[in-house]
Amino acid sequence: MTKRALISVSDKTGVVEFAAQLQQRGWELLSTGGTFAAISSAGIPVQQVSDVTGFPEMMDGRVKTLHPAVHGGILARRGTAHMDELRAQKFGTIDLVCVNLYPFRETVARGAPDGDVIENIDIGGPAMIRSAAKNHEGVLVLVDPADYAVALQQEVSPAERRRLAAKAYRHTSEYDAAITAYLEGTSDELPTKLPQHLTLNLSKTAEVRYGENPHQPGAIYRWGQAHGPVIDAQVVAGKPMSFNNYADADAAWNLCQELAAQEEGAVCVAVKHANPCGVAVAEDVRAAWERARDADTLSVFGGVVAVSRAVDLNAAQAMRGTFLEVLIAPQVTPDAVEWFAEKKPDLRVLIAGPQTNLSVLDVRPLVGGFAVQERDTRPWSDLCPEVVTTRQPSEQEWADLRFAWGVVKGARSNAIALVKNGVTVGLGAGAVSRIWAAERAMTNAGDNAQGAVLASEAFFPFDDVVRLAASQGVRAILQPGGAKRDPEVIAACNELGLSMVFTGSRHFKH
Question: Active site residue: 3, 12, 82, 134, which one?
């Protein structure tokens, strides 16, 4: 019995060549619409599906393959009474289904009207894919041009058929998830609210040697069609990224971009174990890097660095004496890339694209589930800072308070940031007590605490941080406010001659 293949694809990559090779191997070809036109125009014998069903395409193409001649030919179990039923109806088998679906996601992404989006919900395609995948013992199902070569083998093993079937069901499930997200009023698997049901449509985008530790397998996944500045970054020099590199680079880049949006100069963020360890703003990248490095030369060793502007050769050469794991920037000049490749071959140098089409959800694993929230993206411009003390911050202190607020927001709670003249001089993060975080920041700062400002991501339950800060020469403090003892804290500031600003916005980060 001659084998028949039904080919109907939106992504026509390699489909004409594939059809030609099938035909050369003696397959009969069935097709529809644009795929039929592409194959036939190449001079390859192909039959319209409507000739097999006996019915023309109807309703602007909404109905063309939904017919027993198609689905009977796909679903009939070979070697059973199903074959007698097919012959009684004068239907033939369909032994290969090569289908990929209407470009629904792409239609949503380009901002098409709702009517166009709805018309790009494929019905016949998923039905044929699922039918073929169910009957994969007798039918090859192809949803990816990368698998065309498999079908051209002399024999396709049962294990390979099962793999293709699983891939087909994944293809349709991801498609359904995109449609569900759209109809729920969200944006192609990037929810703008917290839905009753949340589908985590993840696809592997990068291999890593292992996870956080060598005994843990790990990989990097993309959520639906989401853009990830780090996972999509171009590695232009250095070794492959590790699991921890991705995590730290993501933290560094996100904080760098948030600060860059509110600062006029070049921003440099150094991160170690997902916490900032040196952050600075300056006129150019080299100066910003040198200030961030000198803020904590011990912690920056082996760290990850993000900068907000292009890295040129001058800035690259300033990094000569410091061991870094990753550098990520919006641009790296060719001579800088060449220099890094020669002088720092272990440094992973990444170029990140613009931050577009980002997920608004922050998803964190729990045993048996996930904790989900909207990402903390509140900018400084969204606040109404209120000076609650007699002393007003100076102009420079206001600038440093704003900068410190951005930095401390990117640090793990409990967190304290000390800033002076646009550079962090002391950081305390991840402490179980706020006073311990402050003590760590003061120790880190040493004499540089004199004249600095302090920011806290959450309110002060007591006045102990104020008194410690004043003893080290801190001149202004920024915190959310809202504690029962706010009056005592404010009174301590007035007693010690400090300025205090309430933001009304807490920024826990666990």
Answer: 134
